Structure formats: C-alpha cells, structure tokens
Amino acid sequence: MGRWRNTIERIISKHVNKTDTCWNWTGYKKLGYGHAQYGGKLHQAHRLIYEALRGPIPEGLVIDHLCRNPSCVNPDHLEPVTQAENVRRSHGNGSKTHCKNGHPLSGDNVYFHSLGNSRHCRICKYAAHRVWVAKNKERVRNYLRAYKAARKATI
User: Fold this and answer.
1) Can you give the pTM of this predicted structure?
2) What φ, ψ does residue 25 adopt, rounded to 5°?
3) Helix, strand, coil % (nearest 5) of the chain?
4) How far apart are CA 117 and CA 94, in angstroms?
5) What is the pLDDT, as a whole number, of residue 1?
6) What is the DSSP code (8-state) at residue 109?
7) Residue 62 domain-assigned?
8) Which range marks the domain in which residue 152 is found?
9) Do both 126 and 57 map to the same domain?
10) Which of 29, 46, 81 is the last residue of a domain?
11) pLDDT of residue 116
C-alpha cells in the first residue's frame, strides 16, 4: 500500500493544480478527462486518484463529477453512481425530457446506447428501422433467405 500511495502522491504533485476548489489535471487529457500511466496501463486520472484516496469503486458504478469539470480529480467532487444516474445528471442528453420529435424520454420509451453513455427514443428508433427496411427490401429478403437456409441446415 505504501508504494501505491507514494506513486499517487507523486502523480498528484506532478500533474494536479490545487489552486482552486477543483484539482485540475494538468497532464495528458483525452476528451477533457485526465489520464495517467500506472502499472504499465493508461488510466483515467479521476478514477485512479479516487481509488487511491477513497477506496475501490463498487462494481457496476462509474465516477460522476459533481462539479461538472471533467479534468477535476478532487475526490470531494467525485461520487460513484450508476451509469444511468450519471447520464441523468449530465447537462446534455441526460437533462432532456423529450426527444427531438417530442416523444417522452422516460419509462419504456427510453433505451441506453450499447456503450451506455446516452439515452435514445425507442419510438424514433423503430420508425427509423421501418424506413430502412422499406428502402432495403431486397437486402432484407436475401438476409432472411440466408438465415432460414442456415437454420434449416443445422436442424
């Protein structure tokens, strides 16, 4: 634990500006989030520092920046939450109540992208799928023929 603590303290002293309430990461950033090398791997700095100073991040949770500053690594500004809660708290897509076509973004009508980082309208998704199928009828027919043939071959 001592070596881990010393490494984190060195990283903080080298790459963190503590002059204001946020501890702003001054090292390498990607999409606004600080990144640091540790154990031969690149880690998100806020997660690395949170785990070093507060303990492990519970399974299935992500770290939310309460200050809305992605380069902040101050553990007092970080909170483990579910991905869904993190999206709901965000200023972008998470605060929307309706999609661009006026459908509600709630209940069964909302789904999360496979990467888990944005909400989408199920009604609009199905409508777009129907339009795609109508434009690609021959392609869909060929796919269904091949699928049925493959299924028949395995039986």
Assistant:
1) 0.57
2) -75, 125
3) 45, 20, 30
4) 9
5) 46
6) G
7) yes
8) 93-155
9) no
10) 81
11) 58
Domain co-membership, 12 together with 73: yes
Counting the structural domains of the chain, the total is 2
Residue 15: closest CA among 55, 49, 41: 49
* Shared-domain flag, residues 17 and 60: yes
- pLDDT, one tens digit per residue, over 116-152 is 567 789 999 999 999 999 999 999 999 999 999 999 8
Helix (H, G, I), strand (E, B) or coil at 99: coil
Q: Is the separation of the CB atoms in 49 and 12 below 8 Å?
A: yes
Amino acid sitting at position 69:
N
Q: Which residues pair with 29 in a beta bridge?
A: 34
CA distances from 76 to 7, 22, 65, 116, 134 (A): 20, 9, 9, 25, 53
3-state SS, one letter per residue, for 16-85: EECCCCCCEECCCEECCEEEEEECCEEEEHHHHHHHHHHCCCCCCCEEEECCCCCCECCHHHEEEECHHH
Strand, coil or helix: 93 = helix
Pairwise CA distance, residues 109 & 135, whole Å: 25
**Which of 30, 39, 21 is closest to 11 using CA atoms?**
39
Q: CA-CA distance, 50 to 75, in Å (whole number)?
A: 5
